[in-house]
Structure formats: C-alpha cells, structure tokens
Write a structure and sequence with these properties.
By secondary structure, the protein is mainly α. The chain has helices at residues 5-20, 28-53, 62-77, 83-105, 110-130, 132-135, 156-178, 181-191, 193-198, 203-229, 239-252, 257-273, 281-295, 300-312; strands at 141-142, 147-148, 151-152, 231-232. The protein has one domain (5-312): Orthogonal Bundle (ABC transporter involved in vitamin B12 uptake, BtuC), CATH 1.10.3470. The chain contains 14 helices and four strands. Strand 2 (147-148) and strand 3 form a beta hairpin. The two termini are 29 Å apart.
Length: 313
C-alpha cells in the first residue's frame, strides 16, 4: 500500500512529534493530557471515516467506547478474565452489535440517522447505569491495570509509548484506506449515494463495514482507557461524550485524518486552559466552538491546507 506524498509528509511529522514529545513533558500531568489526546485522536480518526469521508452522522459513538471500557472492567473484576482477553471479547461484542444495528440504522438519512444513533447511545448508557450488579451503576467500577504476559502497563511513560505507537499505526492505516479503492468508495457515497450505486458500489455493504470499523476502534480504545485510568463511570457512554467526539471531528476537519488528531488535541486541552474562567468555562468553550464553525466551517486543518496551497500557487 502507498500513501500520497503530502500524507507521507504529515505522517513523518507525526512520528517526529511523538518521538520528541517526551523530551519536553516534565511531569505526570502533562503525560496524562497527551495520553488522553492520543486515545481521543484514535477514536476520532475512526469516527471521521464514518462522518467525514462517508457522510454518515453518528451521535451515539460514545456507546461503543463505553461498551469496550465496561467489557474490560466487568470481565476482569467480576469474572477474573485476563485483560487482553476481556479487551478482545469487548471488541468482538461491539463488532457483532454494530453489524446487526448498522443495516437498519444506515438506511436512514439526515436527522433521522442522527436520531437513530442518538437513541442507540442512550439505550447503552441506560443499561450500563441500571445494571448495578455488574457495572456498579452510577458509581462506576474499578478496573485493574493492563497486563500482557506478566508485563504490567504501569506508569505514564509506558502508556505514552503504547498509545503513541497505536496513534501512528492507526493514522498510517487510515491514510492507506483512504487512498485505496475502498476509500474512494467511501468518498463516492458522501458525494452522491445514487451515483456511487450507478458505478457499481455496494453502498450498504460499504457503510456497514465503515460503521463496524469505527465502532471497534472506539471499543478498543475504551478498553485501553479503562485500564489506564483505573476507574470508569457511565459518563463514558453518555450523550455528552458522543457530542465531544463529533466536535473533535468538526473542529479539526471532516474528511481529514490529521484534522482528527488536531481536533482531538484542541478539544482535550481547551477545557484545561479554560479552567481559570471557573463558572464561565462552558460559555467560553461554546463561544470558541461557535466562532470556529462560523469562520472555519470546513475545520482547521482543511482551511490551513487550502490557505497554504493558494499561497504557493
């Protein structure tokens, strides 16, 4: 598989940044922020394949993140499963569920599709909250550290290198997918589903596959996040978390892999920077997002790329 020259340059920059970041990260808090950025960026990259490249909105994607987190939490603490096996079981369960619900849901369009995915997310969140015996209900549940063949992932530096490697790998895979015939099929559906069908694209199968792919990516990162943080609550599967993920896609840039990373970084860091505003934090956060949508409707990265192309022309 090959990547376009511009994308290869962006991937090289990403590798360089992730390699040099530990030189400037001075304390566990900074490592923690970067680890959460990387986890969010991986989830949002998968979500951007669905929303940005295929044009299918999802307002319930946090449900899959939460299912992965609780699969790892419940299976390891309640049933004594090894963490890696629990993580894999959660991903398989999410793949099966998303494959089952994708066909009827993805037949819908526009706000009907948005409401259907929102309903799915609400159902999962309610189940997690009410299943007190296994999930701990609203109080949440503790999750043991991730261990592989006796090697425990303990400490911010170990987690940093794990999520950094995963971020680079997922970015590389996403770029290759986009430049492949399958990726062109995704973009054809976004442009015109009828036209895509006319040229022979099985639009239903393509949409189901990308929906399942994005759901499994969210599940895997939910499991890793649960083991990293060590404690999970139903908020992971909540509506606000889904909106946060969609916001990362839109702010960074729809149909932009590197926009996913930038959007995840901005939305993860911004609340930390706005903490000085105390009670006005939410208002300022909303105002920034509103202004971003007004002046950069295509997202930050596509706008900057377009500006640089015009200057070099």
């Amino acid at each position: 598989m090959t990547i376009r020259y511009g994308s290869l340059g962006g991937l090289t920059i990403l590798v360089a940044v992730m390699s040099m970041l530990p030189m400037v990260l001075g304390n566990p808090y900074q490592y923690d922020v970067v680890i959460h950025i990387a986890i969010n960026a991986i989830v949002v990259t998968g979500l951007n394949l669905l929303i940005g490249y295929t044009g299918q909105i999802s307002l319930g994607h946090a449900a899959f993140f939460g299912m992965g987190a609780y699969a790892s939490g419940v299976l390891t603490t309640r049933f004594g499963w090894p963490p890696v096996l629990a993580l894999a079981a959660g991903a398989v369960a999410v793949a099966l569920l998303s494959a089952v619900v994708a066909r009827p849901i993805l037949k819908l369009k526009g706000h009907y599709l948005a409401m259907a995915t929102l309903g799915l997310g609400i159902i999962v969140s309610i189940v997690i909250t009410n299943e007190m015996k296994y999930t701990g209900g609203p109080d949440g549940i503790s999750v043991p550290p991730l261990a592989v063949a006796g090697f425990a992932m303990v400490g911010e530096k170990r987690w940093y290198w794990l999520v950094a490697a995963l971020l680079v790998a997922v970015t590389w895979l996403a770029l290759n997918l986009i430049d492949s015939p399958a990726g062109r099929a995704l973009q054809a559906i976004r442009g015109s589903e009828v036209a895509a069908q006319v040229v022979g694209v099985d639009t239903t199968r393509v949409k189901v596959r990308v929906f399942v792919l994005s759901a499994v990516v969210a599940s895997l990162m939910g499991s890793l996040s649960a083991h990293y943080v060590g404690f999970i609550t139903p908020d992971l599967a909540g509506f606000l978390h889904s909106i946060e993920l969609v916001t990362m896609v839109v702010v960074g840039g729809m149909a932009s892999v590197f926009g996913s990373i930038v959007g995840a970084a901005i939305i993860t860091i911004l609340p930390q920077l706005l903490s000085a505003f105390e009670d006005w934090e939410t208002v300022v956060f909303g105002a920034i997002l509103m202004l971003t949508m007004i002046f950069m409707p295509k997202g930050l990265v596509p706008m900057l790329s377009s500006h640089l192309r015009h200057r070099s022309a």
